[in-house]
Amino acid sequence: MTTAALQTVLTVPERFRGPVGVANGGWIAGTMAEALNGGRSAVEVTLHAPTPLETELRLEHVANSASLSHGDKLLVEAIPVAEDLEGPGFVPFNDAARAEAGFAGLRAHPFAECFACGLREPGDGLRVFPGPVEGTDLVAAGWRVPFTVTGEDGVPASIVGAVLDCITGWSHFGPDETALLGRLALRIHGAVRPGGRYSVVGRPTGQDGRKLFGQSAIYEADGTLVAAARATWIAPR
Questions:
Q1: Do 105 and 213 sit in the same domain of this protein?
Q2: Contacts of 192 (CB under 8 A, 6+ apart)
Q3: What is the pLDDT of residues 86-141, one digit of tens each?
Q4: Is the pTM value of this prediction over 0.85?
Q5: Which domain, by its residues, includes 42?
Q6: Number of structural domains in the chain
């Protein structure tokens, strides 16, 4: 007996790019988590290849997994994981906002067009600019949620995934340093409010050769955990 796959078509709008010409990895991860279980329990998303923009892609959901393909090419896989993703630690909003002044991407940004952390116009990009928090190994930013990312049911998981993504990389990067997201596990604990103010915090958790590891979280003003993630990045050779 086989389980029939549920297939839909996904097209990533140009707006949600990371590196020029391809989708933001966190946006894709959040989209896959939403397709699998709404992001309410932990989902691990593996990015096998860059996801093209403005292209019809096949999103397939079978039992406890989901995949995204372009023709015969597998781009992304998502599976549930029995894991309690923890945040790196709360930073109050005002302290997180002050840390933005030290954002390495303001001096030299390899992906200045990135939807999440790029230098795009307010309301178009998310402008999450994580900088170092003095006296800690954390980076943080104050995220003011633009109304331009709100869907019919509030702020979607794709936007939450994008926010959780880039900050894990910037916990490692200096100016103009770069890597590509290889894997993101995420869990969404609560809703993100349009127009709300949140602390976004990241921390490096290790390195193994070209692999860089990090964790991130979004917190309410009172420290309540809204969403958390762990990431694996692959640095260039």
A1: yes
A2: 145, 154, 155, 159, 160, 198, 218, 226, 227
A3: 899 999 999 999 999 999 999 999 999 999 999 999 889 999 999 999 999 999 99
A4: yes
A5: 6-80
A6: 2
